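[job 0417] fold request received: MHS family MFS transporter
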Amino acid sequence: MSQANQTVVPKENSRGRVLFASMIGTTVEFFDFYAYATASVLVFPALFFPNATAINAILSSFAIFGVAFVARPLGSIIFGHYGDKLGRKGTLVASLLLMGIATFLIGFLPPAAGSWTVLAPTALVLLRFAQGLALGGEWSGAALLATENAPKNKRAIYGTFPQLGAPIGFIIANLMFVALQTWSTPELFQAWGWRIPFFFSAVMVIIGLWVRLKLVESASFQKVLDQKKVVKSPFAVTMKKHWRPTLAGTFIMLATYVLFYLMTSFTLTYGTQPASIEQATAAAEAKGKAFDAAGFVPGLGIERPTFLTMLIIGVVFFGIFTVVSGPLAEKFGRRKFLIWVSAGILVFGLAWTLFFGPGQAAAMAGLIIGFTLMGLTFGPMAAYLPELFPSNVRYTGSAVAYNLSSVIGAAPASFVAVALWKAGAGNTMGVGLYLALGAALTLVALFLTRDTSDVDLEEYIE
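[job 0417] inference complete; emitting structure tokens
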């Protein structure tokens, strides 16, 4: 075969391909995840728990929401194993495909009635578990795709691109829910409108797969192959030799997870809950249901489309400050920068009732401040966590740390917050103290961990 007829295989990924592939994949993953999170507040309590009281239906919906966080550490072990043994590319494709299939199938689930009274919630649990497995492998692979292909002094900047998938996916998912609620009747939305975002995910998955299939392996992983340093059991090696950075990374992510799920799932529940018994009675009568005053907990009484719009505005700040965080983390170092941001989250938690209690304007201010802090703390994580681990266990180590944090930080956040709000009879002080505690634990982890800005990712192999 002549040289002119040979296919030229690229030896490295272009900057544009790296940044777009890392961002589009996490956008798809987080879109799917947030579509479920939004539906778990707006639709699933009534759809899958029709016989429960309003507050118990919400708690049951959040409990299934938390199933994915239990699955995520298992997903991090499975996908981390193959990511460190076979390569980043194939693992990223597999995680994206699993998330897409699970989300698409959720859109077909019938209401919990008749023969589906038990089967529908059970199927939802299984599909939610599959979503968790997929997300357990996605984030770390996308973070490695960005940072292992970045110049040494720009890893935190490149690392913000997979992080942007979170606000972008959130905005797309919630814009769809706002549009569907605005352009359809409540009956149509409850019957089939909520399913459209789950079906739409198939289109986004195809785009993500097309981009990721064009990637080649990073130089860091290729060096592991060349030096024959692939380990037999990445998870076992991580737990035996690198348990300290794994534990540190878990708590470094804690405040980020608690903050995000309070700012999204909990505030949506709290913000749209009727503010008075009279308002709750009217809402129940409009749905043709009897109102049970015994289980009533007052919220802000804001209309759902209005509060979803407020959330979208807040998430715009999340995206902006995710981008801003990259250069700042390069300038000041990951550790020092995150110490200051975590201190800000702690103060925000102590001041929580100043924003979530007085009314709509204060809540909007709280959403902007909270999501700004979220962008600043989330942005550097894609650089910081992978830099804690050597190349031959980097996928597993960063994935396990990230997803263990989801178990203790994200999974209980909405459930605990609702319980604290209920215990406070509508007062949210306990919710703020819960956030402050998470931030305090993150600060301890940061003070006990070194800065990793000067780590050479290609040479750090054990």
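[job 0417] notes: The first helix runs from residue 15 to 42. The radius of gyration is 22 Å.
[job 0417] exit 0
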